[in-house]
Amino acid sequence: MVDSLTASILSLSALLQFIAAYIAFHLVGVTKSRGWLLLSIAFLFMGLRRLISLLALYYGAGEIFTGVLPELVALVISVLMIAGVLYISDYFKSKAKAERALVESEKKYRTLVEMMNESVITLDREGRIIYANSKAAELFGSSVDDIIGTPITNYCGEECSRQFMQAIYKPQSVPFTLETEISDVNGKIKDVLVSISPIFDDKGDITVTIATLSDITPLKRTEEKLRDYAEKLKQSNELKDLFIDILHHDLMNYASIIKGYAEQAQGDGIDSETIMAIRRNAGRIIEVIENATKFSKLASMEKIKKVEMDLAEVISDVVQEFKPMLSEAGMSVENRIDRSLPVKANPIVEEIFGNFLSNAIKYARQGQKVMISAEEEGDYWKISFADYGPGVPEEQKVTIFDRFSRGGRGGVKGSGLGLAIAKRVAELHGGEVGVEDNVPRGSIFWTKLPKGE
After folding, report:
1. Among 191, 325, 331, 384, which residue is least crowded by beta carbons within 10 Å?
2. How much is the mean pLDDT over the chain?
3. What is the pTM of this model?
4. Cβ atoms within 10 Å, residue 35
């Protein structure tokens, strides 16, 4: 009769031996070791021996096995052996997985470094290049293989080499940055911005040094060109200032002399019409000179000093100043501002209203009237000068305040700077100017100025 306990032990022992043989055989591929192959064969042999013993037990072939107790001991040993094999298998699998992850990570790192626009090199403790991406090879004017193993001092001057080696032997916890020059294999000098970062091991010792180099040669050349341009621009501004100075001081004297003699001649009764023409054109010369001087100064201003003032009083003073010209042109002014208009402004704000009136006298005298009004729009005062002349064509409403732009009305010639001055003064105050139609006839020139409360 077959001993069921012995048969069970033999069956389980054989199964475990075959499992151990399979695991050991699997480890051959993981570890690349022949020892596991031999162990796999040994486990297989022991499993076959137990299988033969089991068959002999069933068919009564004799005492191939030695009894229950020895087989039970063998079973325990088999269990311990397979547990050990499983532990070792898991260790090697984890190690292989970590190695694959490391290889994959390194592959990704290299791919990322290769895709960078910056040149990246890795240096050993002696300052030799042990890795370089394709951008670094391009920077040094050679191939990657040719620059690997070469010292960084081959491409640097004395100061650059000293700084590199100092960064290697006396590393800092933060990247060390320097701007320097390098020379490629062809001797071409390039400006670079370098960031040097040491890599430490677990003990705090430096292993390698990574350097990132950015070619800033085009940027440096651009900076040089900008400096040259700035210097030329400075000289140009100085010449402009000189021209304005000559225009204002010298030409103004000549124009004033012409006007003075014309007035004297008119008083003596000499050809009144001719003298009037001389006076008129001399006056225009003086106006051009004054406007050119004003605009030049205003164009270069960025900030102006502001004080508290009343726009209503400023406008009243401007109207009073223009009374002789208004009378000569046969025009009148209706000032409808009957309240105080407190603002923080610079006295040059009167240029806006003076140019509005001057513009009306030149271009809208046939309307015979200018009406001035004011209204409050939030934090702004809107001041309007309405005339009853021919109006401003639609296509000129945008450009009429631009420098040297004129409406071309009435055959009046001038520099076109008056309204440009008004616009610039408004801008310096944080305001604006504009023009719109005065229904049924004429134009309304307006400005919005902040109260500055």
Report:
1. 325
2. 75
3. 0.44
4. 11
